[in-house]
Amino acid sequence: MAAGLDRPQVVSHAQQALNYTLFDCKWVPRSARLLCLGSAARGSGLLQLYELRGGRLALLREIEKAKPLKCGTFGATSLQQRYFATGDFGGNLNIWNLEAPEIPVYSVKGHKEIINSIDGVGGLGIGEGAPEIVTGSRDGTVKVWDPRQKDMPVANMEPVQGESKRDCWTVAFGNAYNQEERVVCAGYDNGDIKLFDLKTMSLRWETNIKNGVCSVEFDRKDVNMNKLVATSLEGKFHVFDMRTQHPTKGFASVSEKAQKSTIWQVRHLPQNRDIFMTSGGAGSLHLWKYEYPSQRSKKDSEGAEMGVAGSLSLLQNVTLSTQPISSLDWSPDKKGLCVCGAFDQTVRVLIVTKLNKV
Amino acid sequence: MPVWLREHRWRQTASAVYLSLPVRGLRVTPANIFCTDRYLKVSIPPFLFEAILYAPIDDTNSTAKIGNGIIFFTLYKKEAAVWDSLTLANANKEKLQYLRENAVLKAHEKAKEETEAKKLTKQEHKKYALEATMKLEEAERKRIEDLKEKERQKVTKELELWKKQQDAAEKQKRVQKEGELHQEVEQLQEKKKEKNNKTSIPNEGTSETRIKATKGCRGSYSMFSENLKEEQLPAPRSAATIKINFTSRVFPTALRESRVAEEKEWLRKQAEARRTISTDLSELEDLKEEEKNPDWLKDKGNKMFATGNYLAAVNAYNLAVRLNNKLPLLYLNRAACHLKLRNLHKAIEDSSKALELLTPPVPDNENARVKAYVRRGTAFCQLELYTEGLQDYEAALKIDPKNKNIEKDAEKIRHLIQGTTQDC
């Protein structure tokens, strides 16, 4: 029993029932406020700003937009401005100033179909280089935008002419450790994972994990790429060791089949990049720790370097709801504080304890 | 006839009777002794001792001690009285019988009662044990709950503390910012005065926009450091496009889209087809073993087709079909033979049968289906049924759009149709 209680516990702190479908929830950096976005029953988009007060969430502001909102990020904005970038069901990318949300600061109809996933890099005082936003859409393209350049993306990853397109379900930035280097990882619904190098504007690596990729995330955006977690349908997720790329075999990986249902999201703890949480289609959250192998790379028979994947251990799991938990975000300011939104129209604030002792 | 044991001696006190019964040389076990409250029997076949007791005794407490060659009974009387004799004197046969039966019955009842009592106590014990374990588990659960609750409270308190810190920090920064704004406004006013006298300072334009931008935000940076930061950001990337390919869709497509059900059905059909052998023994008796194998016959037919012996090929296929009428390839090949032999109607029939058997349509039987459509199309055209022919060619093209021959032929047919309609 003692060993069981030394493990991190997931404590439910506050929850709020909403009257709209919740697609994404994000903490506002440097505050105890969070943003929930989704689709109202009447087909419009809703953005709600809550503040954590006591054990409750208090609604501060509600903003309604024409199209339902699917995803959002604070990743490409400075800490003073804290502009929020959203992708909506109509393929529009907008950046909002939450103090004056009537007119977006930046707006572009980036895609022909719904923007499934968005990520930002270069903002919030993390990393170096120009702030950029990447969006992945159902039309099979992945586009990188610079808020200083109107209408045209700065990079466009699209299928070859005549190729039947696959939906892009998730995108993530990584490897942004200096001003030039940057990498975008995209996951598609047929199991493809592609890694694009934005410095050389080329495809650096691709692989296929058989099941549709629901979520990819690097453990840190602003360091030399270290680990990449990709989650997929049917309860499997893969952790790739991104330090050593073998010319033919690519990156080493370890995979785990944790839940019987789709793993919707993976999020790394901002304060410790070896701990991450996966959220599942059965309403459960699993907290994992990655342990590095004794040697991270070894030589294969031809003398080329190849990576060695480590091992995973499950720290804790908890079932919060019967519906899938579709969005998850750790607070960058308080270690262990996280918010998750599920399809049962509730947003929950959780605290994960004892992360210092892990 | 049992041997009666009559040499017994007895003495009594007010409350008990002591009876000693010699049983020289006999082995006595407790099973040999039978006692109820009015009747005592010791039966060691062939020896028998029985006594109808003068008065009732307490048979549960009475004891019998089996010693060497003697049994010593200690019978406790139910009523403290003095017995005239050990047994009832005037006991006639009937009474004896009755008493004996009674005794036996009583013994039975007693045994039953005892077992029932035992069962009851056992149940009670079990119940008690269950309740005890339940209580233990409940206590354990409660303990864990309490621990969790304590954690929760601790964590909530920490969160509140952190929040207060955040709020305090924000307030401070806001105050700081307002102070700075005042400063900046004053500086601007000074600079404006300067501008009226001197040339415009390049920073002015940017400083105005800087102030506009910091309105409503927390900014503790001074004007100059913000300018520098702006310059540090690299220019937007030059636009470029990366073209990508997706993993080709082979037989096992992306799992959630795989047409596994259809493909399984196709494979099952194939397997079944191989197994059905419509036996027509009377005619096939004189065939050799290999000639009864449809695959072998198909190969034979193919070889003969290759050498140009179309009639023989048709014969081979016919026999194969008789043996197994579910293999689509047989019909397909026979159609080709009929085409060569200009048996066009038969060719159409066979291609149609082949197409029927080639359902469900999966990537596996694409080639076969293309061939079937092409052959049927050719047959139609040779019968001058050009529209049907074109239909089949287009179906073949749909499956295999990259085949140049099919395209050329389809074009030819189209021209022909247009030519004939023009004539009319």
From TrEMBL, chain A:
Its main location: other. The keyword Oxidoreductase does not apply. Coiled coil: none annotated. It is found in: Dynein axonemal particle. The keyword ATP-binding does not apply. This is Dynein axonemal assembly factor 10. It comes from the Eukaryota. Key assembly factor specifically required for the stability of axonemal dynein heavy chains in cytoplasm. It comes from Cepphus grylle (Black guillemot). The gene is Wdr92. GO terms for cellular component: dynein axonemal particle. Pfam families: WD40. PANTHER family: MRNA EXPORT FACTOR AND BUB3 (PTHR10971). GO terms for biological process: apoptotic process. Keywords: Apoptosis, Cytoplasm, Repeat, WD repeat. WD repeats lie at residues 133-146.
Automatic annotation (TrEMBL), chain B:
Keywords: Cell projection, Cytoplasm, Neurogenesis, Nucleus, Repeat, TPR repeat. PROSITE patterns: CS, TPR. Residues 173-197 have a biased composition (Basic and acidic residues). Transmembrane segments: none annotated. Its main location: other. GO terms for biological process: determination of left/right symmetry; epithelial cilium movement involved in extracellular fluid movement; heart development; inner dynein arm assembly; nervous system development; outer dynein arm assembly. SUPFAM superfamilies: HSP20-like chaperones, TPR-like. Residues 199-208 have a biased composition (Polar residues). InterPro entries: CS_dom, CS_DYX1C1, Dynein_assembly_factor_4, HSP20-like_chaperone, TPR-like_helical_dom_sf, TPR_rpt. It is found in: Cell projection, Neuron projection; Dynein axonemal particle; Nucleus. Residues 3-87 form the CS domain. The keyword Transmembrane helix does not apply. TPR repeats lie at residues 370-403. Residues 173-210 are annotated as: Disordered. The keyword Cytoplasm applies. GO terms for molecular function: nuclear estrogen receptor binding. This is Dynein axonemal assembly factor 4. It comes from Cepphus grylle (Black guillemot). The gene is Dnaaf4.
